[in-house]
Structures are given as C-alpha cells and as structure tokens.
Amino acid sequence: MTAVWVTIGGLAVxxxxxxxxxxxxxxxxxxxxxxxxxxxxxxxxxxxALVATQTxxxxxxxxxxxxxxxxxAAATAIALRAPLVxxxxxxxxxxxxxxxLA
Amino acid sequence: xxxxxxRESFRAGVRVGIPLAAAxxxxxxxFGVLAEPVMxxxxxxxxxxxxxxxxxxxxxxxxxxxxxxxxxxxxAGILLNARFLPMGIAIAxxxxxxxxxxALMGQAMxxxxxxxxxxxxxxxxxxxxxxxxxxNYPAWVxxxxxxxxxxxAIGNTDDLGLDAxxxxxxxxxxxxxxxxxxxxxxxxxxxxxxxALTPFTPAGVPILxxxxxxxxxxxxx
Lengths: 102, 221
What we know:
- Chain A contains five helices and two strands, in the order αααββαα.
- By secondary structure, chain A is mainly alpha-helical.
- In chain A, strands 1-2 form a two-stranded antiparallel sheet.
- In chain A, a hairpin with a 2-residue loop joins strand 1 (about 55-60) and strand 2 (about 60).
- In chain A, helix 4 (about 65-80) packs antiparallel against helix 5 (about 85-100).
- Chain B is about 75% helix and about 0% strand.
- Chain B contains twelve helices and two strands.
- The model of chain B has no long low-confidence stretch (mean pLDDT about 90).
- Chain B has a two-stranded antiparallel ribbon with strand order 1-2.
C-alpha cells in the first residue's frame, strides 16, 4: 500500500510542477511569431495523436478492434454535426455492440 | 482585458464545460472500476482529487497493477503529462498576473479545456479554460467514486464500450481545430508519429513526440 501513496503523492507534485512551468517561466511574455504559429498547431497535432493511440494502441501493440468501429461511428456523428455528448454515447454503444458480436 | 470580460469568458467556459463533464464522469467511472482492485477504495478518489490527469492516472495504475515500483509508476505518469510543458508554454503569453496566480492558472490545463480555449495565432482565453476545467473537476472525482463503489454492479467497463469514449471525445475536439491545410497537416503528422512510435517507446512518449507534427507542418508548408 505504501507504493500506492508514494505514487499518488509523487505524481501529484510532478503534475503540478509540469503544469505550472510554462506560465510561471514565460507568463505574459510575447513570443516570436514563428513560435506562435507552431503553438497554434499544437492542439491538432496532440489531439490527433491522442485519438490515434487510444483507438489503435493496446499496450505497445497496434490493433484494430471494436474501438475502431466506435470511433468511426463517432466520426460519422461529428460529420452530421451531432453534439459532443451524443458523439461519445454513439461511440460507446457501437463499441459495445461490436464487442458483443465478436 | 476588463474584469467583466474575464467573468463573461469564465461563464462561457462553465457552459461549454458541462457536456465535457458528462464525459469526465464516464471516464472517471472507468478509472474507479480499474483502480479499486489495485489501490483499494480511498486511494483512487484521492488520486483523482490531487493528480487530476486522466491518462497519467491510468498509466501509473497499470504499472502498479503489473507489480511495478512507485518510481516506475511515477515516471509513467510524468511521461503522459509531459505534453503539459509545451501546452503550458502555449498559454503562457495569455496568462497575466503574479507568480502564484500564473502557477495556479497552469493547473487549469486539461486537454479538452485547453483545446477549446485556443483562439488561434498563439492566443488562449485562459478564463474560459478555467471555467471549463472547474466544471470537470468535481465530475472527474465523483465519477471515480461511483466507479470505486459501484464497480461490482458495473462489471467490465470494456463491455459497455467505455474505452471508446476518450478517443471519440478527442476526435470531436480535433474536428473543431481543423481549419486549413496547416492544421490538417499537423494532425496527420501527429497521428502518424504517435502510431509509429507506439511499439518502440513507453506510453506517453508517442504523444509527446507528436508535438513535432506542429513543427514539421510549419517547415513543410
């Protein structure tokens, strides 16, 4: 049980430090224009990476499983301009259904 | 910006945060169900309350469940949270005020709020981000508690397809970000880099390396 509490405490401190670093070191400062362009593209790059790994990664293997069907259904819902809540519910339902059939 | 505009931004953030909070409850519930056998009843809820970073919590818990040490679990969590360094640099210009306030504003970064607060050209509406995050915080902690205490009744959360909620959720946020060929290029490179590294690096590194997608998209335009 000690390992659990050490992990929680250590990770809480580390996370707070990582999140504070940028605003603390550079807060309110104007950054060079090329850097601003890169920064504006961080969100699509990071979000796409999160989508890709959480859909296709299983540990260190790449797999196509029921999640891929669920996320494809979510993409359809997004294209039809469904609200975000509807989108995630559709993803869960389709994933569960495909997994149930398998 | 006058204080009234900040308040208006904050309120708009709270409104946009409410549907996000629904997703946080479900993902928090998954975390509670998975963490309870590893840590017991109290620790997962404390973890959600003081770490408040979903992917890092899942990763650290997985390491402990496999019999890994606390150090290994902390490193896994740090790798997954390392993306908050570039994300923090991104918002820094928009965070004004004293040191303590700036450090606190950094804590308001979660993926969804951060992405929604992106106003383009390197600007972020940090009060909007704060509003959206503050709604998500109780949802995340409460979801974890429901998972911990209701886990027996819920059963295997994968049977309910809850593991598809996070990627679907991020896909919805991504759709908002895709304006123009540069952002599409950055997203494509980010996804390819992350998948290419997945078999060879610890969890978290692929996501961090995907930041290179933003750099490469600018270089190659």
